[in-house]
Amino acid sequence: MHKPGTAIPERFPAQDRFARGAQFIAGRLVQGTSGQTHAVVDPATGEEVLNYALAGADDVDAAVAAARAAFPGWAGATPGERSDALHRFAAVLAGRAEDFARAESLQCGKPLKLTREFDVPGTIDNTAFFAGAARHLQGQAAAEYSGDHTSYVRREPIGVIGSIAPWNYPLQMAAWKILPAVAAGNTVVLKPAELTPLTSLMFAQAATDAGIPDGVINIVTGTGREAGEHLVAHPGVAMTSFTGSTGVGKRVAEIATATVKRLHLELGGKTPFVVFDDADLDAAVNGAVAGALINTGQDCTAATRAYVQRPLYEEFVARTAALMESVRLGDPFAAGTDLGPLVSHAQRDRVAGFVERARGYARVVTGGQAPQGDLKSGAYYRPTLVADAPQDSEIVQSEIFGPVLVVLPFDSDDEGIALANDTPYGLAASAWSRDVYRANRATREIKAGCVWVNDHIPIISEMPHGGYKSSGFGKDMSAYSFDEYTQVKHVMFDNTAVVRKDWHRTIFGDR
Ligand code: NAD
Asked: How confident is the model at residue 5, as a pLDDT?
């Protein structure tokens, strides 16, 4: 581990980089004016990385004003011009990949190999995808549907999008929120989570450096209650796009509804992992451990509930526990680290609370504690497997957002699918089987926005991501996201040049 006070600037010099402030409004970094400050903390050590002034209502107003001022020019740019700008943006990001990886690892505690191989390349790819997609906004064909008119559809940007993002993948969430919106001609004010503002600010700065006009992308870093609610309620904002917990999503929906805003909600998950008795057990065990522990379990699609058909159950539990025990916790910046800390000590304690309460009704097979020794001061928690919990218990039903997998047995295929569907969430699921008919049935009957077969976690820029049920509605990534960030207008031309039209008889009688 690094030495306090010396190594953080070497890892990422946040205090120098954000000396001018941690708000990005109209193309430059400025200080927040709320009068309150917030500390970004390295969760691997508990040391402060950056103390910054939070945004207040005035900063949100300034960011919305900048976004409104930029809107006519950006919306009026041709798709080719927006595409060129996004291509340049992708190139700037690629040139700064290592810088982004280090900042993301520092503020989140993610191992560098995760940020280098997943968060950052995924974001660059997403940017390149939307650079291409900006030129492919498609509409319905024009035609003479009534016989006397030509109808066509215009797909238009909406205006200023107010976006709110969580802390688990700060860079990717900023990208998912900003890219489809700006590719379609909108401008954006994004509020990242207070814990993890660094890479959203760097993302906006990279856009400016790539020549995206000032005001198209603005970042306000404030609390949810103050800056977040002000952004959602703001009359100058046309749409709210929120990613976060289902509880906060409900509050955001209430506020957005009061001003009749369009709403896109990407909310929590409690993703099932269903293993049928003909599955490749080796693949399922590896998939379960990787799928549960990705990003230290702080992933809305992480495998959280493994349902394993009875003949494989005992062996699955034993092998999954053994594989979990082989995963190496450590310094996110060290080469041999597989798993970093949780994002904060508060999140670690919250996760530990779920496991402690579960001891009263379930069996903790492995983990269930924080490591000691060198890792004691970080927000670490051991990979944890919990068995024998009732289906209706808290640990099976609630989103934990930590490295905790619950495993339960099932008998018939009907039962496995029913249990998978038995939570309020519906973000993602996976089915493990070598029988194409069984697997295909699971993909049809599991109510979730994504179902993997014989894998768990991969995402791809071309394909949509979004929830069913209490996991929200609307899609991130892919061309489907344009349905959220555009509105369609019917344009209808009269082709007859007749003064008194046929339908006027309903007004003028038979004269
Ligand atoms: P959170 O709901 O606590 O916070 C999310 C964001 O909302 C933060 O920026 C926060 O400051 C803001 N916020 C809080 N209160 C607010 C309010 N009253 N008004 C407006 N904004 C407010 O979530 P979190 O703890 O940051 O992130 C974890 C959650 O995010 C999990 O539930 C996870 O499943 C979810 N998530 C979902 C997806 C998805 O694609 N569906 C992706 C990532 C994370």
From this structure: 38
